[in-house]
Amino acid sequence: MHPLEKLFRPRSVAVIGASGDPGKLGGRTLFHLKELGYRGRIFPINTSGKEVQGLPSWRSIADLPEVPDSALVLLPAPAVAQALEDCAAKGILHVQVLSSGFAEEGGEGVVMQERVVEIIRRTGMRITGPNCLGSISPPDGYFGTFSSLLATAKPGPGKVGIATQSGAYGSHIYAVAGFRGIGISRAIATGNEADIDVAAAIDYLAEDPGTAVICASLEGCRDGDGLRRALLKAAAARKPVIIMKVGSTEVGAAAAATHTGSLAGEDRIIDAVFRECGAWRVSSIEELLDVAQLCAIAPLPPSSGVGILSVSGGIGVLMADACIEAGLDVPPMPPEVLAQIREIQPVAGGRNPVDTTAQLGGRMHVFEDISQAMMQGAQLGAIIFYLAHIGRNVARFPPLEEALTALRRSFPDRLVVAVMTSVEEVRQRLNVLGVPVFEDPTRAVRAILGAARIRVLQAAAAAPPAIGPGPPLDLSATNEAAAKALLAGAGLSVLPERVCLTAAEAAEAATALGFPVALKILSDDIPHKTEVGGVMLNLADVTAVAQGFDEIMRRARAAKPAARLDGVLVAPMVTDGVETIIGVQRDPVFGPMVMFGLGGVSVELFGDVAFASAPLTPERADALINSVHSARLLAGWRGGPALDREALVEALCRVSKFAARHRDAIDVVEINPFLVRARGAVVLDALIAPRRA
Amino acid sequence: MHPLEKLFRPRSVAVIGASGDPGKLGGRTLFHLKELGYRGRIFPINTSGKEVQGLPSWRSIADLPEVPDSALVLLPAPAVAQALEDCAAKGILHVQVLSSGFAEEGGEGVVMQERVVEIIRRTGMRITGPNCLGSISPPDGYFGTFSSLLATAKPGPGKVGIATQSGAYGSHIYAVAGFRGIGISRAIATGNEADIDVAAAIDYLAEDPGTAVICASLEGCRDGDGLRRALLKAAAARKPVIIMKVGSTEVGAAAAATHTGSLAGEDRIIDAVFRECGAWRVSSIEELLDVAQLCAIAPLPPSSGVGILSVSGGIGVLMADACIEAGLDVPPMPPEVLAQIREIQPVAGGRNPVDTTAQLGGRMHVFEDISQAMMQGAQLGAIIFYLAHIGRNVARFPPLEEALTALRRSFPDRLVVAVMTSVEEVRQRLNVLGVPVFEDPTRAVRAILGAARIRVLQAAAAAPPAIGPGPPLDLSATNEAAAKALLAGAGLSVLPERVCLTAAEAAEAATALGFPVALKILSDDIPHKTEVGGVMLNLADVTAVAQGFDEIMRRARAAKPAARLDGVLVAPMVTDGVETIIGVQRDPVFGPMVMFGLGGVSVELFGDVAFASAPLTPERADALINSVHSARLLAGWRGGPALDREALVEALCRVSKFAARHRDAIDVVEINPFLVRARGAVVLDALIAPRRA
Questions:
Q1: So what's the pLDDT on residue A589?
Q2: Based on the domain organization, do A214 and A85 belong to the same domain?
Q3: Beta bridge mates, B569
Q4: Do A680 and A489 touch, CB atoms closer than 8 A?
Q5: Do B246 and A314 touch (CB under 8 A)?
Q6: What ipTM does the predicted assembly reach?
Q7: Residue A148: inside a domain
Q8: Hey, which residues does A422 pair with through a beta bridge?
Q9: Which pLDDT does position B599 carry in this prediction?
Q10: In sequence order, what are the beta bridge partners of B532?
Q11: CA-CA distance, A693 to A670, in Å (whole number)?
Q12: In the predicted model, is pLDDT for residue B148 greater than 70?
């Protein structure tokens, strides 16, 4: 049994702070338990000790005749700690604290929440909240929440599990799911997350046999590895996870920080973590539920190829555009398939989308027959039908139902989606067949995209490889030469460079290395050398190098009089290749994260970089490179040679391993530029920032 | 009276091909006219000449006792031409041909459509179709269509006019509009567009007093200037135009071309035309109707600043993210406003979004009071409220209604939007107040974006300035030197360059111009010089130039033995600036269109270019530059100097005028690179392609 089973699906529950007044939160929660179909035992706890809402009640937890599986606490905040102590004493170890007035209000509330945390640590109790909406399990008739939504709409039972931090956010999702007929297995809102967070709830849902699809919403995240583990567990169980994370913009992140007290962080880092762990991120509640609904009904499409059959040419084109823009394929049908199609429906047009025209005269088998031809003719993962208003007419529906039944039977692993206006009955009958129905063509495509991507992401989902700590590093010096020495030790190529302390040494080094050369100031105190004029390029002879040495030292002294100068680095000029940037930064939540991009305007103007968790495998490194748009420059640009991608992959793996091994010692590794050449790749400049105390 | 008034709103209508069988198109159309509230006179025309569906009928148009305003033709295609002749003879000059079997089927159908066009030309008759769905005017109870939608859902009357090319596309929009309670003024589907196209329909709707908002959908466009005029008329009337154009991807464009026989064209060109003419392009039917619904109910927001008030912190953040990503502003409230907010609702958090928390205890005036403070404290164009499930509870609604009524009264020109789950009654009551209601937070933001942008676009909407033809050009030579001479004549700066016929001449020219120089092959037959190795850069002395001359001539002869070579252009090397690309291409539908972008990866890798109609005004040129992402490089890059933007604007205007003046003689002007320098800007290479015969 999962350790949270009793919390999500208690067979008996105490309501601490139960009230006879359904206007009060403790009254409303009791009312929901009593009236909405819960078959477990309910124990109201109330200081009066008389019956509450017709149920026998108890003065205290201690008085209860048995140990209930769970307790819901609805007392004023100052009384919560004692209630938790009482629960622990009684042996109730699964408690939901619905009361507010804790950390979210600051001041005294923070202190009270700390006390809750202390009780959890001491007793091993598991709690949700404080300041949470509670949880529901519609298949059990269990609605352990005061949500006012239930006054007008009770979520129905089904296979979609929902975990959100915010209660209002969650109840909005429950409500819309209900309007759309999406059944819920369990739903929980975790509130202030003194113990159980969204990740822990996902972990439960991933194991819960009643849940097939998981929807989640995060505002912040404190335990990156916990989130990774939960998402990977769901991916391994092949339960699609559709997830939202608010705070993606600066304004949003600032607001989320104010609101939850948790760091939003670099949005693309959480994006990368979701992707690596097989979760599909969406940006609206509508999309969340569209994808969830599709996944709950139908198989995930086995390829990104989509066949489009439309009774309207225009809407066929609209859907083809939407597919292509989303990154799905709309492969044109080969001539032999087109010939078959024309035989089935002579007026049909197009190679995919196929326009059947509306001239069908009730011959619904046309859809099945053409689909059969298309499915056999191309690697399609999904077929979309645009069927206009057929779904509004129940009388005209049976032949369509028959055609789709046959099609589903022939291709049980492919996704078949109907787009049309329809009445509820038709929609439900198609859902039973495993055919999701959408009214809006663009939303249908967006949902198919989600399902197709989830299949690919889950198949590739994996944690970053485990890696032990490396031997202690000497980080007493952090200038460029020291950083390069460390990276060379990690197996990266660096140039034959020399640290010089005098102009004469520099001239001699340059002569030995070969002209032209670059000179760079060396100082632990000057991490950004160009800012002080500490870099000179393309020095062509001995005189230029000697003068350059003096000039660079002079500039550094002028700009940073207090800096300790370690001399000047003399390096050969190498420019034959493409400049890339490789960085690893230690994210406070997700640990060391690799950043990769190409130098110049791609990064600085178009923000064309991508992130991945460290350490990288070669496959992940390759995917990281591919997810950078400008990486196509590596294949050769304007007739230039293809560059050594293998060397780049190897370097990414080595840097990422180095940073992961030394995560306790290093905050940042930045190699900029990292020059990828036709053969090999080399560190041109590097910076290592030791971990701040 | 608009020339199409009788077509859209006939006071009497003949149904040619009326049938007693409502299963047939001619029977269904008559049924709709008879049964759905039309108050005009209906004249069924039927070969039997007996009564049809209980109405007296006539054998022929000629027999009619009066001249009806319009006729609907539902005969088989081969009989249509004679029916049109009969209509013309009777004096009916507004006819809708609903019959199919014309150009859309190819072969004989094309010939029959040509005959229809000939009749239109000869008689001055105005027709929609053939192969169209007809039109409706719900306020008149007029449903002149066979659409099967009407069997289950009749669009209600309202202020939204709809013009689509495709009938199925149109009827999908009518259906969804109906489900959402969006009332329609007129709707038309133009089918094969032998005469009336979507632009002509928009032109009518722009003048129609019953229409306040226009929705349109195009698959192709044949008359670019007609579309411009219609959109500008709507913009001048301050009627929002929300428009879709399918075929935005290559696959979609190919499908649209198959399907409609019309060219999809470069999608960004039609994008530019829409924008210039004040129309707002959307990519889904859902978005089309969301924006239309908002515009039909509420004022367009006077600024892009949005205030967000939410009972849920999480959903406030979600909406803030959506605003920022869409390009709306979410300005933080100044401290004095925050102080006011805390006084009104002490537990409120955030600077915008403002989290009121759900602890309101029915105090709905909180929303009004906080909004008042926010509206006065910042330049907000709109306020969004997230109100959870308040709208599900009619009993709790009156205090909210009161608060919003007061708010609308205080700020009649600002947009107030409610996001919540709600019952229909609450939604309708808020709509009456001018408050649009959305269930999905992200959709609400997207609709606000549309409304805000429409206001800005309509205010700036203008046709490209009229410009007469220029004096005839000598286009007998088109090599680089000739192209530059023409551009110099148009007022652009070119370098002092020399055309040289021998190596000695080249060496002499280089000496006179100053080293280093560039050499470029000159030939009308070699428009792409680099492809034949016809460009050499950075030649530093007389020897290099002389050898370079011979080498270039040799390469050109080897690559293109048949080309006539006009010598070699010797030009000074100039590199101090940012390379841009200025192009003008004559679009077959929209005439000369300017393209602008920055050289290198910005264009080639990121497709960072923008289009505008020629000729440009300085304002439009400036906006064109701003719409290119990488244009920020012009302000100075990595400490470099700011570049001469004014010179660029002037050059764009001059090139665009030149191309527009000579649109009958020139297909393409391309200046690549056009170097923008710290002072001035200069043509480095140019190509002019005369108009193909």
A1: 92
A2: no
A3: B499, B520
A4: no
A5: yes
A6: 0.93
A7: no
A8: A391
A9: 84
A10: none
A11: 20
A12: yes
